[in-house]
Amino acid sequence: MPKVIKRTAKKAGQAPGTLMHIGERKAESIRITVIDYDEQNYQEKQVTSIKECEPFKTTSTTTWINIDGLHQIDVIEEIGKIFDLHSLMLEDVLNTHQRPKAEDYQSSIFVVLKMLSYDEENDKFRSEQISLVLGSHYVITFQESVGDVFGLVRDRIKNTKWRIRKLGVDYLLYALIDCIVDHYFIVLEKMADKIESLQEKVATDPSQETLQQIHELKSEMIFFRKSVWPVRELVNSLLRSESPLIHKTTEIYLRDVYDHAVQIIDAMETYREMISGMLDVYLSSISNRMNAVMKVLTIIATIFIPLTFIAGIYGMNFEYMPELKWHGAYPAVWLVMATVATIMLVYFKKRKWL
Amino acid sequence: MPKVIKRTAKKAGQAPGTLMHIGERKAESIRITVIDYDEQNYQEKQVTSIKECEPFKTTSTTTWINIDGLHQIDVIEEIGKIFDLHSLMLEDVLNTHQRPKAEDYQSSIFVVLKMLSYDEENDKFRSEQISLVLGSHYVITFQESVGDVFGLVRDRIKNTKWRIRKLGVDYLLYALIDCIVDHYFIVLEKMADKIESLQEKVATDPSQETLQQIHELKSEMIFFRKSVWPVRELVNSLLRSESPLIHKTTEIYLRDVYDHAVQIIDAMETYREMISGMLDVYLSSISNRMNAVMKVLTIIATIFIPLTFIAGIYGMNFEYMPELKWHGAYPAVWLVMATVATIMLVYFKKRKWL
Amino acid sequence: MPKVIKRTAKKAGQAPGTLMHIGERKAESIRITVIDYDEQNYQEKQVTSIKECEPFKTTSTTTWINIDGLHQIDVIEEIGKIFDLHSLMLEDVLNTHQRPKAEDYQSSIFVVLKMLSYDEENDKFRSEQISLVLGSHYVITFQESVGDVFGLVRDRIKNTKWRIRKLGVDYLLYALIDCIVDHYFIVLEKMADKIESLQEKVATDPSQETLQQIHELKSEMIFFRKSVWPVRELVNSLLRSESPLIHKTTEIYLRDVYDHAVQIIDAMETYREMISGMLDVYLSSISNRMNAVMKVLTIIATIFIPLTFIAGIYGMNFEYMPELKWHGAYPAVWLVMATVATIMLVYFKKRKWL
Amino acid sequence: MPKVIKRTAKKAGQAPGTLMHIGERKAESIRITVIDYDEQNYQEKQVTSIKECEPFKTTSTTTWINIDGLHQIDVIEEIGKIFDLHSLMLEDVLNTHQRPKAEDYQSSIFVVLKMLSYDEENDKFRSEQISLVLGSHYVITFQESVGDVFGLVRDRIKNTKWRIRKLGVDYLLYALIDCIVDHYFIVLEKMADKIESLQEKVATDPSQETLQQIHELKSEMIFFRKSVWPVRELVNSLLRSESPLIHKTTEIYLRDVYDHAVQIIDAMETYREMISGMLDVYLSSISNRMNAVMKVLTIIATIFIPLTFIAGIYGMNFEYMPELKWHGAYPAVWLVMATVATIMLVYFKKRKWL
Amino acid sequence: MPKVIKRTAKKAGQAPGTLMHIGERKAESIRITVIDYDEQNYQEKQVTSIKECEPFKTTSTTTWINIDGLHQIDVIEEIGKIFDLHSLMLEDVLNTHQRPKAEDYQSSIFVVLKMLSYDEENDKFRSEQISLVLGSHYVITFQESVGDVFGLVRDRIKNTKWRIRKLGVDYLLYALIDCIVDHYFIVLEKMADKIESLQEKVATDPSQETLQQIHELKSEMIFFRKSVWPVRELVNSLLRSESPLIHKTTEIYLRDVYDHAVQIIDAMETYREMISGMLDVYLSSISNRMNAVMKVLTIIATIFIPLTFIAGIYGMNFEYMPELKWHGAYPAVWLVMATVATIMLVYFKKRKWL
């Protein structure tokens, strides 16, 4: 996470609106895809120049322009010019370390989110920033790289039976946000799996490595929370927004997203408590184990120290030690030793130390 | 709890309002029961087809339609059509991992709650989601399975002497919610029992298992809180609602439910503090016990180590050790040893280590 | 405390307003006392039937009807009928596990409080629920048992010189609440005494029992807070109330009670911090003591283990050990041992372990 | 601190406005000082009877009446009568355990504050309650004893060059509050000194006594916070007050005091964190020290126990032990022992235990 | 940090608006620089007397007057007179321990901030207070010493291509604040570096010194937070301000600064959690290490104590010990010892103590 800050720091002192790509370059070249539809028609094409998108700006059909890759600043600038986007908005698009937020720029609404997914192969969470711009007849989405979570949304757009074909751009915006938020559940699920398997490990076989895993999980949770927590406020600000771009009919759907966001935050809080509970269990397991080791030492030492002392006594070389000459002395010493050991064992048993 | 998220995750990316049953299938087949009454009349019947409920939609009598089982999506969909229920509402009914909430859909009010009960046989808490829809002349309740906590409400409806026969559907809604909230007290009671018995165990006989029980109790408490905490806000939103479906006269009863919810939340907070207090006592008991063990080792070792050293001295085989030849040496050594041991014991006594 | 919930649980599912006494039966029989006064007149009598109170309902004099004992439900019901009290209000009166609160029932204001006192004999805090109903010309108080903290209020009513004789029923209500809140200071004082004596014990002579006492005190504090915390909100809601039953002139007095409530809550918070500070001191005292014990073992063992080893060497029975034959060997060994011990002691001294 | 509550408890049940001095009697006799001034004139005198102050009540000059000592209730009562002060206000003046607050009594504004100073001689913080009453032409201040922090304010009043001579009574009130708040900085400074010296001690030479000093400091901080925290709210309520007694022009000065109060609270929070950080360092120092002691024992014991065992073996008296007869056996045993010890030391070195 | 308070304390009791430089004297002499520009013209000069600035007060061009050094109170006073600055504002300028804040003085807006930078050479954070005064045609900035973070802003002003030349004084104010806030990212970056390197050290090689470094970092974080936290509120109050000095067009830029401030605060919170997580890891590392040491002692002692006892037995000098005479006794004893040791090792292995 510290890296987040490092890269942003490079921009310190620059004029606001100075376009500069802050983040890893994740894509080879920028790819622009246009999906244009209304209730009857549907068209999807990949364009090579952003100029080709200009006509869609004014048609009454719903247009979704998706841009994959952020490193070609001139392309981003051109989009900005064609669609009249504020330079601060473009700056935010390019800075991939934004806090999720929604902003109302009168003629358009700007939304920044983190698209989270789980990379099964490398057993890692992947985070990608996605910016959404809602205009009167179009939604523009900026992604860091090719590949996203919108497969099912595209399927629904292709099929006339779905509601999405009838409702306008604000519904499209909603559908995309909803899809992103729904994928948070998948990430949560993976996290839940990890917690579950760790919980077992902590109880049965805790090691220094387990501790590290708990802390890793905690870090992931902190990162996840940072991405998800502001989404509630984001959706809420869309709900309260009085922008004409968002219709009354879409509000009920946004409220649904809001509920999901709250549900995720709730679950996260529960997981946090579970993780910190795990830490307690870990520490207490470790100390229990140590105590068990110490107890064995204590008992063995406590029993043998007096016995060894007795043996030491009769190992002394004094000339005048009458016991040494007695015939039954040796077995008697054994008897004494056995008695001492027995008394101690009984005492330990009684105090439940065994 | 992690399972909650797993199942919800399956739906990621689906269109909003896509009906899909999320949760365990708890009932064999859907059972629909209709109770219809006004001040004079009372009728209860089990219907096989939801169509039979349609007439009750418009009659001025109060109708309570109860559906047990959520897995037959077509039946739920049909109910939705007949009673004009929003598809998002039906989606919430089917997703049994909802956060408790109340939503105003103009023509109807939608309430989701967790019905908690204690399963005496298996010594476990059972949680079932219940959705309530308040229309102008009817209340529809959706339950996951047959069997609920509404026995006493049904008895009151059957009997003309009770106020419930005179007051309308909103009072029925209140009565059902009140009944659910009242049952939270029973769950709290069981929790209190568990806490009490654990508290004794922790003080007298703490073991690794006790720790696990404390953490289990804590988990149950977290789960319980998740179910109950939002109820306060839920009732409050009904109170503040300006929906014509809720009459002024019902408000005072809702305020009573609100007070109960607050009381439960208060008690829960107290229990939480008691549980974390128990953890402290547990840890301190364990460490006290360990200390007692260590003290015995310390004292025995501290006394015998010097004595064994003395014995070791006179076990040396030097040819010229004058003491070995002295006649009174052996008893003298015993004397010295006894003196050393006594001094130590007195010192320990003085420092209150014995 | 868990018991609080147990008893309330019995009522689950009952119709709202079903009268049922929840709590211990503390009084033998219900006792009704009427005090009626205005600036000139004063009258106090004990009535046997609640019917006798009916005339006071409409007279313009100030009437205080006090009921001791809550177990005769029919008497409570009759009072309800005579004074037009809402059934939910009566339900709250009978349920002695209410959270302190004030409710405005238009024609009357209902206040529930905990009356706390300290039982010197049994060294225990006593808590009794008291319900106050403010009507246009009367105040009704319901107590669980005979005996209360209102002695000084009664004295002031008897004496014409006091302001209470001139001001109306709302002032009487204020005076009673003020008196209850003032007694919280006495309970706080006792708590302060206990804290002070425990603080000394923890520092000088901590034992497992001390820990238990700290936790007991903590529990009492939690219980106390539960009783007192809502009082601030209660008084505040009376202050903000727009009920005509509370006159402008009384407000300044209520603000005074509010200040006292805040002061008590402040003190409670301070005490809580002191108690948790005590826990820290306790734990650190215990571990300091353990450390002291361990240090003695360590030092003695560390010194004697090498010495015993040296003795062991010359206790070996090899035929060819030249040292054994040397004349000065024995004293030389003693010298070596003394040197080793001295070096160790000096080392320990230097590192401040002695 | 517990004593605070003890004394207040005495008043429980008394009529509101009953005048009773609660607190220590700090002054011999009440001393009344009057300072009267406007832009041109200045007069300061000590009066023996409060009656002499009556004329100042109506003159248009600014009058500051200072009363030192609170134990003569009749004098306080007379002041109340002359200046029409509410009996609840006088009650608050006499109860020296008030929480800082400002109250608007229409014709006057009442402010209670704690005047804190540092007693260099006894190395203790001193706290004195001061009540300020702002009327239309006068400010009355009640102090527990002779001696205050207002020296510089008096100097400024005497000198015509200062703004205070031109601005009215509300500016005087401000100047007094400002002066008290400014002195909090001096107390903070002393606290900072103590923290600094303790921090050094904790790191270099922690002892049980250090712990006690940390806790003492923590208590002082709690007490200090209790005195200062409400001041922010107090000044804020003066700022928001719509009383005609406070002029627009004074507001900017009050905002300045507000800023100072916030700054002090900020610093206090920082100090609190520093103190609790010190506790952590203390505990970890103690345990580090214990660990160092234990490590020495462990190493010495671990090395010598096997060696002593070897010596023990050849101390056995079996008749047929071939090694005993070998010529090189003794030096061989020494070699074996040296090897074992060396291996162990190397192992410890490698694991960084040495 | 404690020093902050010490110096402020000196002023206690002084009249408000008394000018007194509180802080270190960081500059030799006051240096005044004037930058004056509009869309076409640009002029920068250093003036020796503040009088030379007077003409810029009324010209419609944008003027930035920068003052380096605060110790010459007469110069500050003169500036105050020329630009009609309130004496409280000047007092705040001179007191270099201000909490960041923005205040609206009608004719001007006053902003105080901390300018943070990282001194690469001494590996230390440097903090300097900067006060900004926004008038109708000018911005005055007061710095403690020569040298600031505004290099890039000056460059932008010099170049006609930048927006800053077209927009007015409020944009200049914004640009300066933005620049300061942007530099917080650099400080955060350094902090992130330190955290990262410490995290590695804590996991691999924790020492008492590491603990000190963690606490140092924590202190720096507390100090940093104190400087940055109020900035959010500061910018927010500028945003909400209805002052005509701040134009609508600048608001969107201020919102951008606000977002940055929130982002920094977010990152800080994450770092705080990371630091306290490090403390946990540190403590657990230390105790793990101690446990490893103890385990070795335990195992060696537990194995050798019984063996030494056996050796001790046959070291006794009884005349009648039949075993001593047996031919195979010596190897038999070795066998017994090996068996005992093996059993113990197997037991330890099974319990995973090895």
Give a verbal description of the structure.
5 copies of one chain form a homopentamer. Chain A is an alpha+beta fold and 354 residues long. The first copy, chain A, folds into 2 domains: 2-284, Beta Polymerase, domain 2 (2-Layer Sandwich), CATH 3.30.460.20; 314-350, no CATH class. In chain A, helix 5 (169-204) runs antiparallel to helix 6 (208-240), helix 6 (208-240) packs antiparallel against helix 7 and helix 7 (248-313) runs antiparallel to helix 9 (329-350). Chain A is built from 9 helices and 7 strands; from the N terminus they run αβββααββββαααααα.
- Provide the number of structural domains of chain A: 2
Residue fraction in strands of chain A: 5-15%
* Name of the CATH superfamily of the largest domain in chain A: CorA soluble domain-like
Q: Note poorly predicted spans of chain A.
A: 1-7
Q: Radius of gyration of chain A, Cα only, in angstroms?
A: 34 Å
| Assembly category | homopentamer
Share of helix of chain A, binned: 55-70%
Tally of extended strands of chain A?
7
Order of helices and strands of chain A: HEEEHHEEEEHHHHHH
The strand line-up of the biggest sheet of chain A is 2-1-3-7-6-5-4
The CATH topology of the largest domain in chain A is Beta Polymerase, domain 2
Number of helical elements of chain A = 9
Shape of chain A: rod-shaped
